[in-house]
Amino acid sequence: MKSEVQFILSMVIFGTIGVFVRYIELSSSETALLSSSIGCLFLMFVFFLMKGSIPWKRVKANAAILLFSGIALGGNWIFLYKSYEYTTITNATLGYYFAPVFVMLLSPLILKENLPAKKVVCIGAAVLGLILIVGNGFSAAGTGDVIGISFGLTAAAFYAALMLLNKFIRGLAKLEITIIQLGVTALLLLPYVLFTEGVSILEVSPSSIPFILILGIVNTGIGFWLFFSGMQKLKGQSIAMLSYVDPFVAILISWLILQEQMTIVQMLGGVLLLGSTFISENQSIQFTKRFMNASAK
Q1: Residue 212's closest CA among 9, 27, 87?
Q2: pLDDT for 23-51, tens place per residue?
Q3: How far is CA 24 from CA 20, 56, 107, 207, in A?
Q4: CA-CA distance, 129 to 269, in Å (whole number)?
């Protein structure tokens, strides 16, 4: 029961990311830099309190994959945060939840996994759902929603790349991997932000600071900590089912707090997208275990 509570809490925390990002007056790359830096420092503090030690020889052996996975994590956050700027949290979340579809499509090529007919049908349903969401968003609100959902899909592609890269990391625990990836992401984003945004990050408005701290400490640090703590004793199918607390919370917040609306067609598309990925993940417990055991958003 404790593990389930921890995992559900992590999903609730991840589901609130969008609302906090909305109140941060920084670019998506600056926000990603701060969240990765603060989250890394918090998890390092927790890790050393647990008297953990990072095996640097194994880190060196996985250096190339850790580097590329850090790039993937940074790209994932930049485009997800950018998505929130152009469209509703619901649309951004639904676009982002296309990541499992990308993983399913690429797994036969990269991981040499089978792609059974049931998964092909689920992929088709997810694509149809996405078309309904994007197509209706374009007709109802112009290009803003389409651009935002496109950024969400790009974030999903980076997240899928992160999941697949993590399959090739050997000899490191999940919390160790996350700390290293957050650190690599922060180090890579620092020169990028300084080159593209300058030192404007130092001029952040006082009203944004509490939300930056919440995003870094709670959404990144505590969220990942609860995620890995809860996941350790849960079965793959339980993880797959409970992971849908994340989009549910995000959509609920979008509707209740931000008063963001969806058309009936978009709702149908969302049901098709989330429902098809849910069914697909529960078709194969082994696939779900491997997918969810990799580092999260």
Answers
A1: 27
A2: 999 999 999 999 999 999 999 998 988 88
A3: 7, 36, 36, 8
A4: 4
